[in-house]
Amino acid sequence: MDDLKIKKKSTADLVCEKMKSMISNGTWQYYQKIPSESDLAEMFGVNRLTVRIALQRLNALGILDTRVGDGTYVCHFDLGQHIKDVSEFYMTPKLLEDVSEFRRVFEIECARLAIQKRTEEDLRQLKERCLQYEQANAAYFRLLEAEGPQSPALKAACDRLDHADIAFHEQICAMSHNDLLVYAFAVAKPAILEQIVQNSKIRLPFLVADQGAGSVRGHWDIYHAIEQRDPDACQAYYLAMIDPHNATPYTKDET
What we know:
The protein is mainly alpha-helical.
């Protein structure tokens, strides 16, 4: 029966909610300095300790930034960074097993919407992501050939390649022009990145054999399918890329 009891909110909770409301409704703008603790206490009719507790909570959420000797400022909330900070608490082996299934449903739909809604600026940015991936791939294999697999710099080069890969997929999601899908990608991004890392390890012998050319070609194939508004080709290329059992992304001529 305890769960039926009416739970009273603390004064700090109420102040915290009021401050969040003032940010969301535009009373306090991003990067604006807000009133001091004493001014806030007077404004809300509470003591300074209550205000301090509310400020600490909003600082912990990344909504406010209190700078010693300066004051407190409104932050532009970064959902992606917030999710990254807490990802270790929800990243489980079971979750990672679900990534491929999630991507087949989620990213294919993002790509379909990207084909429908894409702008020339969207395509320019996606092309830039392809070029960045191609450059990161070339840098990785140049280093591998010059210094061998034991090179201490190779891991950093591999990390840059993996991050260039996920940036490509993130751009396609952004091209859906659907804010909820963008937020969902931010939540799933750590798990997707981990899958990309694991897939790279599985495919490494094939990638080394052709210097990553198949992987680079796979990214360009998706780009051109979106550019040409070809959902069937885009889906085929995408499925080949995200399937961990596929050695390397293929082109239409290879299927």
